């Protein structure tokens, strides 16, 4: 091939970002082509939206397919360049040319002479073996890049959790102070001590979260460095690549084995002396109905069918649960009851606005539903309350949940009975309407205590 033509072809196969031969080439919508790793690294640091490095056209898409034609042309050009190199250096290793073009399939990481030890081994041309290893490197590059993105998601999530943790403990101090004021207005020293316990736990967990965040940032930095080393290894001449590839692939395997999970902080269930005894005075005979009805509850709406005071059916995010609604309508006063949640992984307890007419489907505003939810997820479980939807960073209650309904100030509280601790208390004047009790479980009907 004419040298000018060869040079022109090589220029067309060069990435404008790294100024090297294209690696795993991708062509974006504007028609320009780049190395996939160059584009990934460039767009990772870019402001949204990302732009083409050549024409500056903005792009939202981040996931592109390999340009197969360009990839084949790059491979052909690389092999042609290697053979040209061998030809130009023929005088330097006439007797060793055949040896240098052989790769032992058994050792795979070394060039070997056809000695007696390796006479039985199958050999292949060096450039063919180098291309096979480049495919392995590409595969590892994609895996490393996916891990980098996964760790970034974890970093973003843990940053959000840090902010929510500080806010959550602050809210918990406020609602606990309200409970002390209601039950023990003269216990100022005990209330102060309780607040200090929460502050100390907040500080310890916050330090753990920030340490974890720093570890994640370092892990991302290390993986990014490894990714760049893979790119450099891919670009090396065949002989150097074959000599170094085993080491870099082993490093990839070691670094990709461990993948950290998001840390979920939990506030301990600190007991409040006399809490359950003080509220038990408002306990009363309590029961749920048993007529069939169907309740579909999603977080954009609550739709109820059938008569009131009935065995119900709850649909939560596409999963079906048994549920019941209370027979009593609460219009005034203070009321306390307990429900067992020991045997259920997913449950919901609380109250919802009473509907006067239930013969026709009734849409209940989500702001009129006050539930404590335990939902099984990938990291075990999560605790939420509705109206508004709020994640709770508190240990999972076992045994019984206490519900204290105070219609004098329009609030409902949830308690961990076994620990005599407060889970959550809705602010005063959260609602001003008659309500019914609600209970849902993933696999059985409730046990009323």
TrEMBL record:
Pfam family name, one: zf-C3HC4_4
Gene3D superfamilies linked to this entry: 2.60.120.920, Zinc/RING finger domain, C3HC4 (zinc finger) (3.30.40.10)
Gene Ontology MF terms in the entry: zinc ion binding
Alphabetical list of SUPFAM superfamilies matching this protein: Concanavalin A-like lectins/glucanases, RING/U-box
PROSITE patterns referenced in this protein's UniProt entry, alphabetically: B302_SPRY (PS50188), ZF_RING_1 (PS00518), ZF_RING_2 (PS50089)
UniProt keyword list: Metal-binding, Zinc, Zinc-finger
PANTHER family in alphabetical order: E3 UBIQUITIN-PROTEIN LIGASE TRIM
The protein, known as: Tripartite motif-containing protein 43-like
Phylogenetic lineage: Eukaryota, Metazoa, Chordata, Craniata, Vertebrata
């Amino acid at each position: 091939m004419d040298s000018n033509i060869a040079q022109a072809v090589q220029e067309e196969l060069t990435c404008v970002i790294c100024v090297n031969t294209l690696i795993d080439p991708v062509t974006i919508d504007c028609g320009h082509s780049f190395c996939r790793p160059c584009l990934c690294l460039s767009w990772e640091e870019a402001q949204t939206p990302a732009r083409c490095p050549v024409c500056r056209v903005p792009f939202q898409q981040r996931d592109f397919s390999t340009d197969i034609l360009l990839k084949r042309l790059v491979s052909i050009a690389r092999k042609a360049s290697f053979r040209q190199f061998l030809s130009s250096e023929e005088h330097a290793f006439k007797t060793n040319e055949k040896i240098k073009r052989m790769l032992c399939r058994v050792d795979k990481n070394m060039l070997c002479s056809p000695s007696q030890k390796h006479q039985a081994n199958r050999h292949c041309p060096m450039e063919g073996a180098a291309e096979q290893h480049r495919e392995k490197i590409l595969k590892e590059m994609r895996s490393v890049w996916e891990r980098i993105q996964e760790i970034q998601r974890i970093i973003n999530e843990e940053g959000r959790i840090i902010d929510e943790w500080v806010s959550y403990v602050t809210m918990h101090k406020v609602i606990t102070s309200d409970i002390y004021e209601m039950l023990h207005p003269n216990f100022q020293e005990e209330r102060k001590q309780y607040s200090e316990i929460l502050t100390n736990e907040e500080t310890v967990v916050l330090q753990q979260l920030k340490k974890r965040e720093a570890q994640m940032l370092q892990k991302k930095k290390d993986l990014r460095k490894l990714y760049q080393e893979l790119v450099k290894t891919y670009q090396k001449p065949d002989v150097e690549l074959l000599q170094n590839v085993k080491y870099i692939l082993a490093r990839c395997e070691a670094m990709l084995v461990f993948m950290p999970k998001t840390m979920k902080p939990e506030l301990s269930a600190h007991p409040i002396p006399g809490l359950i005894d003080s509220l038990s005075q408002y306990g009363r005979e309590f029961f749920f109905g048993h007529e069939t009805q169907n309740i579909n509850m999603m977080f954009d709406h609550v739709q109820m069918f059938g008569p009131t005071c009935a065995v119900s059916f709850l649909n939560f995010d596409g999963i079906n649960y048994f549920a019941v609604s209370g027979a009593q309508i609460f219009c005034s006063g203070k009321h306390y009851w307990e429900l067992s949640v020991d045997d259920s992984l997913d449950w919901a307890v609380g109250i919802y606005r009473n509907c006067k007419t239930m013969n026709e489907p009734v849409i209940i505003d989500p702001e009129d539903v006050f539930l404590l939810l335990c939902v099984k997820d990938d990291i075990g479980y999560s605790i939420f309350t509705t109206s508004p939807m709020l994640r709770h960073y508190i240990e999972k209650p076992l045994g019984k949940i206490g519900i204290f309904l105070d219609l004098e100030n329009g609030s409902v509280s949830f308690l961990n009975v076994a620990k005599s601790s407060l889970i959550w208390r809705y602010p005063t004047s959260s609602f001003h309407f008659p309500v019914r009790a609600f209970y849902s479980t993933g696999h059985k009907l409730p046990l009323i205590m």
